[in-house]
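Example record

The entry below shows one chain as it appears in the dataset: sequence first, then structure tokens.
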Amino acid sequence: MEEEFLATVKLISGEEIVAKVCYLEDEDKVLLENPLQVELAKQRKGQLEVSGFSFKEWVSATFDNMFILNRQHIITMTEVDGQIQEFYEKTLQRLENGKSLTGRANKLPRGSGYLGSVKEMKKSLEDIFNKS
């Protein structure tokens, strides 16, 4: 197992991810830890268009944070610089803490439940009860 480092990885699928990577020489595979997918972001401010990027979870439907990837699925990779590493670490921390980019916890409004508002559900249940 080689030394691990934080890298930007371009996959043959076109996806670009940032993750801590380690080459598994015996299996010719790459171990990815906490991979985040890079998403391009554009915003218009008057006549000026500002371009940048954000991170999102690469694989959303799992609690795992380590993935093994065949080396043949990688086009290229490069070690990230300090600013991107800092942004990556802050994003990881926010995802783990369940916070938005504003630094506040994501909370439902007081009147909301999982699939709708509490008032609407209460009314619906009362109507069903009154009809029976």
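Notes for this example: The beta strands are 5-11, 16-24, 29-45, 48-57, 66-70, 74-79. The two ends are 67 Å apart (CA to CA).
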